[in-house]
Structures are given as structure tokens and as C-alpha cells.
Amino acid sequence: KAGVTQTPRYLIKTRGQQVTLSCSPISGHRSVSWYQQTPGQGLQFLFEYFSETQRNKGNFPGRFSGRQFSNSRSEMNVSTLELGDSALYLCASSFPRMRGNTGELFFGEGSRLTVL
Amino acid sequence: QQQVKQSPQSLIVQKGGISIINCAYENTAFDYFPWYQQFPGKGPALLIAIRPDVSEKKEGRFTISFNKSAKQFSLHIMDSQPGDSATYFCAASEDKIIFGKGTRLHILP
């Protein structure tokens, strides 16, 4: 069974540019969550999508957005990049967290974004 | 607002020793507490998890101790091995999963 696939794995952008990251979940998983990982802040929740709808959202500015397609693949976009956006962006797929289901997250290896 | 506080930030333990990582939470609505393990260059992976109606859960060398009244839980790694060297994240969930800031564990050979 293929794992979560994230593309691209590495990318370098300059301030003010925008970036789009892609995530293909494990087959059968309809929930996709995005996290930002930085050395100082650990794993910070960005948003979760289920059946093409945003189900939860973290405390990030509106420059961070996402979407999910009918095949459960997801993309996240960051506009007007800032130096502080340099981070590892992790995507995780799961069955949705609801009563009786823990919603165990299966992570990809991440997209490492460097903003110069 | 940090909902899950994790300590220590880094930890060095001799091979064969006990590694202990502590976490505290604020939201009493959390009903699921997983620990994730992350190796360099990889995404985190679920290690062990507990629900608040249980005070302890053990899987091999890994044990979670849970104190509901104190709103604290901890991970104990018995007989720590160099292969356990990784970053460990505690987490808590009501609907979305919220992570602590992580503990970088290094086991000395």
C-alpha cells in the first residue's frame, strides 16, 4: 500500500512569491491534514480537509490556504511568502476523527520550503 | 496559545537507561493522547496512544502514564537503545490533533 506522497520535496522561493504544495493521501483515506514544522515551534496545525471541505483550521494568516479535490488529493498554497515561512510542510492522511475512530495520522516525508 | 506543553526540549540518555518525556494539556475535552516518533528526513509516525479512561498503557519497551486529574501524561522508554534516537511528539485530540513542540532524544551507545 503506497504511503502519503508529497511534492515537491524541496523548493527555494524568494520573499513575495507564492508556492503550491501537493499531497496524495493513502488510498481510501479521505481526510488530509497539513502541518508546519519548524525547530522552535514543533508541529503546528494548518488545516484539515475531508470530502473537499475544510473541516478544521489552525491559527495561521489568510496567506495560507488549501483545497482538496474529489480524489482526496490536496494542495496548500502560501502567497506573499515571508522569511518566516521557511519550514517543513507535512501532509498527513487519515480516516476522519470521529467517535470510535482515533484518526491516526499517516505522514508524508514533507516539502521543505526555503524562503530567501 | 499552546495547548500541549512538552518537556524537555532535548534529552540524552545512556544505552540501557530510562528515557522520560513529559506533557501537560489544558483542554479537558481532549479524549485521545498519541505519541509520534520522527526520524531525520522522515515524517512522524504513531508510536503509542492512550485514552483518558486508562492510567497506563504499555507496548514493549514503551509505556504511557496518564494522570487525568493533573492533566499530565508521559512517555517512558525502558532499556533505551541507540535506535530510539529520534524526535518524539506528544499530542492531544478532540477533533484535530494538536502536537507538543517535540523532544529530541539521543541515546549514547
Reconstruct the topology from this structure.
The complex is a heterodimer of chains A (116) and B (109).
Chain A: E1 5-7, E2 10-13, E3 19-24, E4 31-38, E5 42-50, E6 53-57, E7 64-68, E8 74-78, E9 87-94, E10 106-107, E11 111-115
Parallel strand pairs in A: 2-11
Antiparallel strand pairs in A: 1-3, 3-8, 4-5, 4-9, 5-6, 7-8, 9-10, 9-11
Chain B: E1 4-7, E2 10-14, E3 19-25, E4 33-38, E5 45-50, E6 56-59, E7 62-67, E8 72-77, E9 86-93, E10 97-99, E11 103-108
**How much helix is in the residues of chain B?**
under 10%
Mean pLDDT across every amino acid position of chain A: 93
Q: What string, H for helix and E for strand, traces the elements of chain A in order?
A: EEEEEEEEEEE
Name the helix and strand elements of chain B from N-terminus to C-terminus, one letter apiece.
EEEEEEEEEEE
Q: Which outline of chain B best applies?
A: globular
**Principal-axis shape of chain A:** globular
Q: Tell me the radius of gyration of chain B.
A: 13 Å
Average of per-residue pLDDT values of chain B? 94
